[in-house]
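#onboarding

Welcome to the new folks! Below is a worked example of what a typical request in this channel looks like: someone posts a single protein sequence, and someone else replies with the predicted structure as tokens. Don't worry about understanding the tokens yet, we'll cover that in week two.

Example request:
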Amino acid sequence: MWFQGISGQAGRSRTARGGHAAEGLAARLADAEREAGSHERDMSSFERERIDLEHRVTRMEAELEALRQRRLEAYARWWNARDDRDRALHVCRRLRRRIDRSRGRDGGE
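Example response:
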């Protein structure tokens, strides 16, 4: 386990039996505190990055929603223009048939 590495072995350490326990423990404490401080700085950096990315994701999601809305509106405009074109073509066909019928009557006399 990770905490067994604190003494280097399970049970009492050799340093403790040798009388230099306080100095060895103080040195290991200083190392552990430095390591904890290093990890704390890393965590702060990672948290700032996470917050920045969260803001960017929120902005991009809003932009994506706006683009989706614009896409739907563009399709609706296209659909309406298509309907208008089809109506105009229908009127053109009817008028051509009338003209053709009118010419046929005038040509027959």
